[in-house]
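Weekly puzzle thread! Below is a chain. First person to post its structure in token form gets bragging rights.
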Amino acid sequence: MPPRKQTPKKGPAQAGGPKKPPETKEDFEEELKILAGQAKEETFSNWAAQQGIVYVKAAALIALMAVYANVSLLTLSPVYGQIAATRLHQRVVWTALFIGWGGNLALRRALPVKTVALLPLVAAYIPMVQFFLFQMSETFGAKLGPAITEVFTLFPLVTLSTACLADVLEDLDLSKLPKSVVGPAPGLGSYAFFKLIEGQSMHQLISQIGKSVLKTRIGLELVLASAYSVLARSKLLVWAVPALLHAAFYNTHLTTPMATNSLNSTLHASAWSLVDRQESTTGYISVLDNHKDGFRVMRCDHSLLGGEWTKFPRKIVAEPIYSVFTQLEAVRLVEIPNKASDNEAKALNIGLGIGTTPSALIAHGIDTTIVEIDPVVYDFATKYFGLPSNHTAVIQDAISWSQSNKDELQGHYDYIVHDVFTGGAEPIPLFTEEFLAGLKHMLKPNGVIAINYAGDFTLPPLGIVMNTIKEVFPKCRIFREGEPPSAETIEETGRDFDNVIVFCTKAGDKVIFREPTEADFLDSLARRAYLLPKHEVDESAFLASAANAGILRANETEKLEKWHDQSALGHWAVMRTVIPSHIWENW
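Winning reply:
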């Protein structure tokens, strides 16, 4: 009996063999549907992958631009100060964004290479171009210098990056969106993402700045140049070698031991030397010695936080080069009822600088608390300016510290010294009615406060701050550090910038200073000459310019902000007379 014919089973086992053709019309239509579905799935996957690449490239270009814009600002601040660096920065960025977005086709046609291939080269050469342009800061001036520097550095980078972004977004498929949205969507979306990254990255940069060489200003520029190189690899990268060699061996702004030695070789020629430097939360901090005149200073960006004479021997305390800090010590000399002895008194010092005033208070035996926001300033004051260790240190923002401790410390301090300044202008929130009221809350009923405000008598901010102080502390006396300039000098320079020291009592008693004794001088020549304030200021000298401005409240800080540009430019000019330009430029 012959074997029975085997009929193959239908199903997956048949998948590898020849496929049976459709036998009916329905089978044929089903087959077409399956093939159409498979084609649709493959097309969607390809589309999604392609669009994903477009979004990733666009996001990378935008993120690099936004971060570099912030790093550019940070790099300008040691030479021009934070406020002067910021003045025209956004205009440079906006112009570059506009030209790059509208001119991408023209650039693509005009350039002999792909636009994206130029990005790593431009980014690599920015530190070197900045290095040479900084040497001309005195010629450019603080008003236009930052913008001129960014026109030759940040501007081409943002222009080319935006042109590349426009090229990339040409492949963006927005066909499913309404026609009215398709046109503006790429530009508006890109700008919104740019501003988001710009804002978020600045907070991150400030919190991390100075923690390693790669997290310094120049280090970050080199890291970003490397990121651009990864994004746009090409044979043109070989042309970046000279820029990298300059950064490694000649750029003294890079905080490496080799660069520091090179910088000191330059400074020694003019009898200066760099003792130490570090980038920190409030700016570029450095300690410098002047060997010709015999003094040492601490610098924060384009401001001086204080200094002391090194040519005079330190006895109990050092000899300060600025009299304002010795005049603040006169807070002890204000006559008040039931005054505590020094060894029983407590003092609060807001803002440290080099520590001149708190060192003196500690030397008098006063239990002193120091609130300083910048850990590097505190470290340098201890290492290089002899800040004593027997005090309470709070390394924190004074506003948050005050808000969280004012109730616990109600009526705790006999003396408060308020002395904050950096970058050409004071931190505005520290002069609001709310903050000053918090300090008043922490004073004992018979307590005394001394407030230092560096300002221009020709501008309204000084009057606004004085209005605010007198609103919180009605009984005050106001002094300036030095003699007022002549009317001719004010007319010639256009400014009358000075430290203004205000002494107030909480109880409303009249401010009267007792005559200092030998013990008050701490065996110091500077204190013997300047401890007692001499140049009292009548309210009419500044209140007239701000008579209708009222006081400064936490939600009205724009009253001072709009004047900060002019104040900072004046301060920059003053600083250039105190220390030579090449010292500021060679940071």
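Puzzle host: Confirmed. Bonus trivia for everyone else. The longest helix spans residues 25-80.
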